[in-house]
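ok new one. same drill as before - structure tokens go in, u give me an amino acid for every spot. 245 of them this time. try not to just spam alanines like last time pls lmao
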């Protein structure tokens, strides 16, 4: 049973590890994220970010350790955890022959949303993710930016308490990026957001805390301000912590 307050731990990674033979894609990953926090998850390509996110969401079973979403163990009670979680994977799969309307309706029905509630949430995500112009068009014919917005809509559809977003602004134009940043900031007032990005400006724009992973291990966990006061300072600290030449 969970306690609904701002100190409630909504994401818990406990010594998470994933190994492929002798290669450690992630090892000893431990952190918690409370309700109402927007947390950046940074690292160079191949550092283990997506692997860790997949373990947190139950899409990948860890070799060691465990994960909890809103107090529910992802391995032992995945359905309960999934009810509280919205996940936007990088390049998430979509049904190209469906329209955003039919796809999101299908997603809502698989989540057993009541008919009236589903109608309300479809209206919400269509507006929030700026999908009205593409609502009745085949997803396979949409631009990358529109497909990304459909992916964001499916993550938001059931009004989850926790959002795990892997590169949410990938493929979006500057106006759309600004809109997504505003959305994430507003969601972070009541929800928990773990945000993976390569765009350091997003860290300053929406995140109060940074987790930085390198070579499968967590190497930094602290307030955004500790990484620097501007994009250049964050980039320098990022390079220092990830041993970039």
């Amino acid at each position: 049973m969970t306690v609904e307050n701002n100190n409630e731990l909504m994401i818990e990674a406990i010594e998470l590890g994933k190994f492929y033979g002798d290669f450690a894609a992630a090892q000893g990953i431990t952190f918690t994220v409370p309700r109402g926090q927007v947390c950046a998850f940074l690292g160079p390509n191949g550092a283990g970010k997506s692997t860790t996110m997949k373990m947190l969401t139950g899409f990948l079973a860890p070799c060691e350790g465990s994960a909890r979403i809103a107090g529910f163990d992802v391995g032992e009670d995945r359905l309960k955890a999934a009810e509280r979680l919205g996940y936007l994977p990088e390049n998430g799969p979509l049904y190209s022959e469906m329209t955003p309307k039919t796809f999101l309706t299908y997603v809502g029905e698989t989540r057993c949303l009541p008919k009236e509630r589903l109608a309300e949430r479809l209206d919400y995500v269509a507006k929030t993710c700026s999908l009205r112009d593409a609502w009745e068009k085949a997803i396979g014919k949409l631009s990358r930016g529109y497909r990304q917005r459909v992916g964001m809509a499916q993550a938001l559809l059931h009004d989850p308490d926790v959002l795990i977003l892997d590169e949410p602004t990938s493929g979006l134009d500057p106006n759309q990026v600004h809109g997504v940043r505003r959305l994430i900031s507003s969601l972070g007032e009541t929800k928990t957001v773990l945000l993976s990005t390569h765009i350091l400006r997003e860290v300053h724009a929406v995140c109060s805390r940074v987790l930085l992973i390198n070579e499968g291990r967590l190497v930094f966990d602290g307030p955004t301000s500790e990484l620097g006061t501007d994009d250049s300072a964050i980039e320098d600290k990022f390079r220092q912590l990830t041993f970039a030449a």
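Helices lie at 49-57, 78-83, 100-110, 115-128, 144-156, 174-187, 200-206, 231-241. and btw Residues 71 and 106 are 28 Å apart (CA to CA).
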